[in-house]
Design a protein that fits this description.
Radius of gyration: 22 Å
Strand order of the largest sheet: 10-9-8-11-13-12
Order of helices and strands: EEEHEEEEEHEHEHEHEEHHH
Distance between the termini: 67 Å
Shape: globular
CATH topology of the largest domain: Rossmann fold
Number of helices: 8
Helix content: 25-40%
Number of domains: 3
Strand content: 15-25%
Largest sheet: 6 strands, mixed
Length: 301
């Protein structure tokens, strides 16, 4: 059988020896069975694009695995186009330092993050203004920001359209409503852990890695994800500046400037002009484990 005759699918489930493949032209799931060199040499992950043939009404023989554009480690998902980083202003309270760590890590893995603030139905007028302030900070830094309520459905259609044709996974702190957003996007009822009123944290309720089709040719990961990650787990201190995307707009005197103590730093000049947010820069310094008196003068404690 020539390559042109092979059917193309997406691995939507990978647990132990189980491989489930969703055929794009048929919009149907099959049990995937690796054959030949794929069986001997290739590891297969959720998100892999595979080529093969239908053996019977329930079985798909995998002949080839296409080259991946990326592979996330936590969770292990291939060819991710967007990471939906879910946040809330409250319940639980927003922590921009944790978000900035996650954004740096996804920059490192070359996966485009989109920031989605959930539970906007819980906000009063003052809190809505505070959310608008954070929205501007991250949009100015170069990120897309969407606001939704998984409870009421507000903003879900916009998010669905935004994710058209992409393989996506969810990330973000426990309790922010990742499973509830997943249920809204896919229409599938999923188990959700209630947020404890005491801790304002949710309980993990998903195991394994599964991609669910939704919208127009989109897939989203029903995964454990992770609630917290340190950029230092993946990125060396001297390389960190490369993964704050707004820093790349400025040409410092030294190409390898870390934007800390070097002279001729245009990033710090941009900070003084208000072109880079104090919140983002303070996160950067905290990750670098550096304290700068001059930044305190500009941004305060």
């Amino acid at each position: 059988m020539g390559k042109k005759e092979l059917k193309k699918g997406v691995v939507v489930d990978r647990e132990a020896q189980l491989i489930e493949v969703y055929l794009l032209d048929e919009k149907k799931n099959y049990r995937g069975i690796p054959r030949g060199k794929v069986l001997k040499k290739t590891k297969i992950y959720a998100g892999d694009y595979v080529l093969g043939s239908v053996v019977d009404p329930r079985t798909f023989a995998i002949e080839e695995v296409e080259e991946r554009k990326n592979l996330l480690i936590r969770p292990r998902v291939a060819n991710v186009d967007r990471v939906i980083v879910v946040e809330t202003l409250k319940m639980p309270e927003f922590n921009n330092y944790l978000l900035d760590n996650m954004l740096a890590v996804y920059e490192y893995f070359r996966v485009e993050p989109v920031i989605v603030f959930n539970k906007i139905d819980l906000l009063n007028e003052e809190e809505k203004k505070e959310l608008e302030r954070w929205e501007k900070i991250y949009k100015d830094a170069g990120y897309d920001v969407l606001k939704v309520s998984a409870q009421t459905g507000e903003g879900i259609d916009e998010l669905t359209d935004y994710l058209e044709g992409f393989i996506c996974v969810l990330a973000g702190p426990s309790g922010v409503g990742k499973s509830s957003i997943l249920a809204r996007l896919t229409g599938q009822p999923l188990r959700t852990g209630e947020v404890s009123k005491k801790t304002e944290r949710g309980r993990h309720t998903t195991t394994g890695v599964r991609l669910i089709p939704f919208g127009k040719g989109s897939f989203i990961g029903d995964t454990p994800g992770f609630s917290k990650v340190e950029a230092s787990m993946f990125i060396k201190d001297r390389e960190l500046h490369k993964y704050f995307r707004e820093f790349s707009r400025y040409a410092c005197r030294y190409p390898d400037c870390t934007h800390t103590t070097e002279p001729g730093c245009e990033v710090k000049e941009a900070l003084k002009r208000g072109e880079i947010s104090c919140e983002r820069f303070k996160s950067y310094l905290k990750m670098m484990k550096v304290y700068l008196e001059e930044v305190k003068e500009v941004c305060g404690d």
